[in-house]
From TrEMBL:
This is TIGR03086 family metal-binding protein. It comes from Actinomadura gamaensis. Residues 7-129 form the Mycothiol-dependent maleylpyruvate isomerase metal-binding domain. It comes from the Bacteria. Coiled coil: none annotated. InterPro entries: CHP03086 (IPR017520), DinB/YfiT-like (IPR034660), Maleyloyr_isom (IPR017517), MDMPI_metal-binding (IPR024344). Gene3D superfamilies: dinb family like domain.
Length: 191
């Protein structure tokens, strides 16, 4: 559905993480948010990226104030969000010099913009998987591809509290751990 493999892989990771959850009220690495709230936030962000690209409707709820109450099955929320995101990005040429996205500076090259959308899905996939006690759904290759994206877009977002400060690297960190540490997440977090 998309000409952006990084986005397809991140969406697959988010689906896999959601499938691993048995307790949607469980805590997550996102302080004060349950697994359900992280899922709502992640779905809302995917819809927001699509809305910025297409001018279509944004999420019907505030992704930064998720209720934690899932109406129906988790897939009823997640799948339409991933579909609208994938369809919006399918309409963007890989050679596009500028796309409009909901992260500062809002206009960026298409490859970076889709990377920002993929990073959002991937990091929240990791959060949800960790909440469930499941292994990371991110592959080392996906994490390696997302780290340079994070290094280009995350710093301005830290000022808004979207990401915690960078955690120092430790020996033995793999690609996923390096990405999570850069995003301020302890790669060994458990509920």
């Amino acid at each position: 559905m998309t000409n952006w493999p990084i986005l397809a892989q991140s969406h697959d990771a988010l689906r896999a993480a959601a499938d691993a959850v048995t307790d949607w009220d469980a805590p997550t690495p996102c302080t004060d948010w349950t697994a359900a709230q992280v899922l709502q936030h992640a779905a809302g962000d995917q819809i927001a990226f699509a809305a910025f690209l297409t001018g279509g409707p944004g999420p019907s709820f505030d992704p930064f104030a998720p209720s934690g109450v899932l109406d129906g099955a988790p897939g009823d929320l997640l799948e339409p969000a991933l579909k609208v995101s994938a369809e919006a990005w399918a309409g963007v040429a890989t050679s596009s010099e500028q796309v409009h996205v909901p992260v500062p500076p809002n206009d960026m090259p298409a490859g970076l913009g889709v990377g920002a959308c993929a990073l959002d899905a991937a990091v929240h996939a990791w959060d949800i998987a960790r909440s469930a006690g499941a292994p990371s759904p991110l592959t080392p290759t996906l994490a390696r591809d997302l780290l340079p994206v994070a290094q280009q877009i995350v710093e301005p977002l830290r000022a808004f509290g979207a990401y915690a400060p960078v955690l120092p690297a430790t020996s033995g960190d793999d690609e996923v751990a390096a990405l999570m540490r850069y995003l301020g997440r302890n790669p060994h977090w458990t509920p």
